[in-house]
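Take a specimen:
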Amino acid sequence: MVMKDAVYGIGTGEHLRVCPKGYTCCTSEMEDKVSQQSKQEFEIMVEDSSHNMRTTFISRHKKFDGHIILTKEASAISCLHSCSVSQVDMSFVHLLKAIPIRA
């Protein structure tokens, strides 16, 4: 808060929410400005300090999703490879065996 916003003089602080009640130089406008500024500064600090954590989480989330997708594909192909010929058409089995399993 800038000093030009300060009101010089003493008043009763009965209408204030944060500043002490009783005799004070704070006004409700000053209190609102300080409250808003404090909120903005806090949000900026939280944003800055959590940036690395969010970046790491997003990166690991993408890697995990990729791993799950590959595992699911490999599992499905492996399952189809192990099915008996009587359950699956012979040409389809031949086609599946030609597809390499990614690991």
User: Anything to note?
Assistant: The longest strand covers residues 11-12. The first helix runs from residue 28 to 82. The chain has one domain: 7-98.
